[in-house]
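B., you asked whether I could sanity-check this one before it goes into the benchmark set. Here's the sequence:
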Amino acid sequence: MRLHTQEWGTGDRLAVLVHGIMSDHRTWRRVGPALAERGYRVVAVDQRGHGLSPRGTGATPRERYDLDAYAQDLVDTLPTGIELAVGHSLGGISLLRAVERLKPARAVYVDPAWQFALAEGLDPAVFVEFRHATAEQIAALNPRWEQADIEVELATLAAWDPDSALALAGQHSGLPEAPAVPSLVVLADGSMLLGPADAALLRARGLEVRTVPGAGHTVHRDDHEGFLAALDGWI
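And here's what the prediction gave me:
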């Protein structure tokens, strides 16, 4: 599958951005331009079933949205010579599964959903119900977001195939055994997806782990400047 992409900048260094579930390239509305200002050509994808990319094909949600298919989409869509690859949440799963084939110089995983099947209260059906959230509900859940982010969330929810959430039932990712490339994990403060024991294990396996104080799961939208600061030495 060839994914829809959005680009910022014309620099001679290539960065790619991979969003999380229910979102699309618009989640990076501030990060893309910020990296472009730092000399990158930035390519952000819409994963299958999200934004302007095609929906998956198959008889069941699982067939349409298998985790390995997300990774293959990145391999089929993204150019070679990637210097920096960033994946958030579900995008962290997709990137991890594709990283050995994409071969970026550096990978950054933002509150990746590697342990989502083990997290309490993460019934995929909850995501489907959230598709009809109002602006007021989104603002209440994300008090640090700018108004533009709330409007983006409403638009991306409307463009999202909820079968991609239902397909998560029974699928599991797990923590990387070792980094295929130099890797940074940027966690939410009090992450629901990766706890202190997970962070310690990741460090022991050779990944660098940083936390953005006060930021929730969508770290880059809760605290844009704090997120960029967490990337110090990696961008």
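One thing to flag: Residues 29 and 149 are 9 Å apart (CA to CA). Otherwise nothing jumped out at me.
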